[in-house]
Amino acid sequence: MPDQAQRITSAEGQALKILSEDQRAAYERDGFIVLPGLLDDAWINRLRHVSAEFVEQSRSLKESTPLFDLESDHTPETPRLRRLVSPADLHPTFWEFVSESVLVDIVEDLIGTDIKFHHSKLNFKAPGGGEEVKWHQDIQFWPHTNYTPLTLGVFLEDVSGDMGNVGFIPGSHQLDLFDQYDGEKWVGCLSDRDCEKLDTASAIYPTGPAGTITVHNCRTVHGSAKNQSNCERPLLLQTYSAADAFVYTDLVRKSPHGDRLIRGTPARWARHDPRPCQVGPSKVRTIFEVQQGED
């Protein structure tokens, strides 16, 4: 097991609410876990309904906005969204979900009882070619003082292997952080040279029914291909951290709920992982805009 200062889970011995000890150990070892069909139908239906409301709103748009990231072939007749930015800030159902649902119990099982919410997003992955996401690590986009931040992805529809589902490289969270700049330019992904150092063939691409939940650490290398199916693949993503993880950049200040304590006790001391953390630019842009080089 890693040194205590470098663990991505809390100290062992706490009672678990949702996960098994094996699942907790797998997250520490691999940097991600998959929980098939865990979310109940009531939540799935509520989240689908609210998501559909925002898709309808997007029909009137001709170009991306700070909240709606659109694909280039988006039209009123056939809306094609890449991302809804900060859904937890936009509708009370999304905020209730991120702050009060089973997700918070899963987070507690992994990083302890003192938990902050960081941000959320809804990636739609439109059918017939929805945008790929190149291999990357998350933490350089929103660097923290330690590496407890983790993201929970929720399948809002059934996901099969041709839908551009996210792939995770086991154990990649234990490697050094990769440089996600190309010279002076922030590109938000690994270089081809660095990808060659990784065993990308070992990546796991979870599939499963609606309600499946993935959990990955902020250091874990992951990415996704284009959606080659004729079905949309909406993935709702929520990021949390331990209360003693503090951000280096001002992303959370742009969100009413960002860096908000949602369980436990506020931290009086920041915990600093001894490993360095690369800092991306403070200007907030979606990963799609960054990786595709869009202005």
Give a summary of the structure in a few sentences.
The chain is an alpha+beta fold and 295 residues long. It has seven helices and 13 strands.
Shape: globular
Mean pLDDT: 92
- Highest CATH level, the class: Mainly Beta
Structural Rg: 18 Å
The helix fraction, in percent, is: 10-25%
The fold-level CATH name is Jelly Rolls
State the CATH architecture: Sandwich
Number of helices: 7
Secondary-structure element series:
HEHEEHHHEEEEEEHEEEEH
From the N-terminal CA to the C-terminal CA, the straight-line distance is 43 Å
Tell me the number of structural domains. 1
- CATH 4th-level superfamily: q2cbj1_9rhob like domain
Tally of extended strands? 13
Q: Which strand-content bin applies to the residues? A: 15-25%
Uncertain parts: none
How is the main sheet built? Answer: 8 strands, antiparallel
